[in-house]
Specification:
Elements (H helix, E strand, L loop, with lengths): L5 E5 L2 E9 L7 H4 L3 H17 L7 E9 L6 E4 L4
Parallel strand pairs: 2-3
Antiparallel strand pairs: 1-2, 3-4
Amino acid sequence: MGELDIVARRGGLLIIAEVRLRSSSEFGGAAASITAAKRARIVRAARLLLARQPALAALTVRFDTLLLSSSSGPIEWIEGAF
């Protein structure tokens, strides 16, 4: 079904975050690597999580991305990315 990189809860908010690292921007960088197919897999995995954990189903879900251009560089955190 897929994997979820980060699942966190802040009050009534469930944050599901995709982490992407790309050392080169030759093909669009880290953000461009989150394709429509990848987003669909993340959403499917999140739906499965919510189905298996009924207590989480009442929370508002937000999908974020954490983008890195190098393992030691700054992190670009995009809240509500999709």
